[in-house]
Amino acid sequence: MQNFITQPIRTAAVLTTSYVAGTELTPSNVDPIIHNQLILLVDFTIGSLTTAELKIEFSPDGTNYYQETADSVSGGTIGEAVGTRQFSATGAYRIAVPIKDHYIKVSVKGTGTVTSSSMAIKAILGEV
Known about the structure:
The chain contains no helices and eleven strands. The chain has strands at 4-13, 20-21, 37-45, 49-59, 66-67, 69-74, 77-82, 85-87, 91-98, 103-112, 118-126. A hairpin with a 2-residue loop joins strand 6 and strand 7 (77-82). The protein is globular, with a radius of gyration of 15 Å.
């Protein structure tokens, strides 16, 4: 019995210097909320880019989105900031994200010269 779903989010394509969202994970195609783990498989070729950036946004209703956050701790105070994942080398990356959301949007962009860059992303939804 298969207890996970694989869904393409972005086919291999040259990056742009503005964020472009891939195929959203929604109740109409794979309903992420019935799972608790998202694995992103990212195949990245840097080409002439300085870096590539990936952001993940979540929504309970498909209208109001909340960007993934990152914690920083200093002297007992936990600071929150919107999280962006940055890639500075060609590679095959695996990113694990806990989830419990109806809608998930993954967007990517390049910084620098986009020539010869490429990124493809697949999502695996399952349970831990």
